[in-house]
Predict the 3D structure of the following.
Amino acid sequence: MSDATLIRGGTVVTAEDERRADVLVVGETIAAVGEDLDAPAGAATIDAGGAYVMPGGIDPHTHMELPFMGTVASDDFLSGTAAAAAGGTTSIVDFAIPAPDQGMLEALGIWRERAAKATADYAFHMAVTSWSDRIREEMAEVVAAGVTSFKHFMAYKGAIMVDDGVLVESFGRVRDLGGICLVHAEHGDLVAHLQQSTFDAGIVGPEGHPLSRPPEVEGEAANRALRIAEVIGVPLYVVHTSCSDAMDAIARARSEGQRCFGEALIQHLVVDESVYRDRDWDRAAHHVMSPPFRTPEHQEALWNGIADGTISVIGTDHCVFTTEQKRMGRDDFRSIPNGTGGIEDRMSVLWHHGVGTGRLTPSEFVGLTSTNAARIYNLHPRKGTIRPGADADLVVWDPQRTRTISARTQHQRNDFNVFEGMTVVGNPAVVLSRGTVLFQDGDLRPVEGRGRFLARAPFADHAKAFARRRELHRPTAVERTGGSS
């Protein structure tokens, strides 16, 4: 039996262009892209007439079966990557997060064991949750193992938060290793202070959550991290940018030539902070995530940031907890496990509210959901594009297919969906991961353990660019002495 598949009659869309073409898959890779391709004997065929053929989505921000706030996120790597495939996402980048007294290599081993059940491909970011000579040395071994991005939490005081001293040391080490730094940008000390004062004022329900994390604490932290990265000379990626305060800091840095990237979450683009005032405690609590949902003004700013390039990637921060788990904070909003879902709906919601409204072109959509993440995290051109030799991660996208989102029909392992009741036009018809059909016409076909770990090389180009920039900005002898020429 042939291991070839011909996707015939579609419009191939990449981040660069779109054109009428067939796509021939042989084994796990793309063999040819062109008009009127011949199917090899015995090849399967997929009719993409009237549809787009796009690279599989890449969600660079997920937390599968994450131990957090006294419980564990309810989606594991099998259910989470299966739900991802149902929505058109064929690769994820999850976070290995060491306990403060745990080594990075130990944490990476634990996460790789958890991920072994995944049905789609996965990579990892490594979190820096403490600093020591051991951590410094292990970072080189982590990079050698194929993990080249390092996350720093500037919030969650008393747990995984790190201070500026750790940022300085870690940023320099990541730079020397050819990696990229990520930050969760919220001023942790200020958040802790506001949480306590809000609780002391008698506000104990979910409505207290956004009050304790206003946009200013995010904007301050983003600007601080960007300035540290600028001085150290390391690329920086600001995760889940939710407000204009943080986005303005990223835009300023980019305008000054700094190598930095902004990520927004699909949830923040379409859900606003009014959800915290819902009289149904469970509904309000299901929206508790950090940073919290913002006012419509901040949502509009994010859309503008997408348009001008300040926001490079749309992720999800997929980290789901059931109603029972959320009720751990029934009498104290500070104990509600932080997290929402979105991995199954990210692409459909963005297409509906972006391409469907004229805010985005199909090529821009592909960039935001796949190609930009692949480039930033050194997965391109294996992932994030449609060309011979690339992995056959492909989505046949029906721009007219309509679906109403509901927790009752979702594949995410949760009893709630923040997009509940939203009707979206534009959905995947067929999804292939390395040539294997995982989803077709509503039929999800996960295969436990078929996902592969995506090892990534260091960022030689980033390192060279920063070295060159430092050379260009090195003061002359006259400038150093303050003399005149």
About this structure: The chain has a mean pLDDT of 95. The chain has one domain: 55-387+454-462. The chain is about 35% helix and 25% strand.
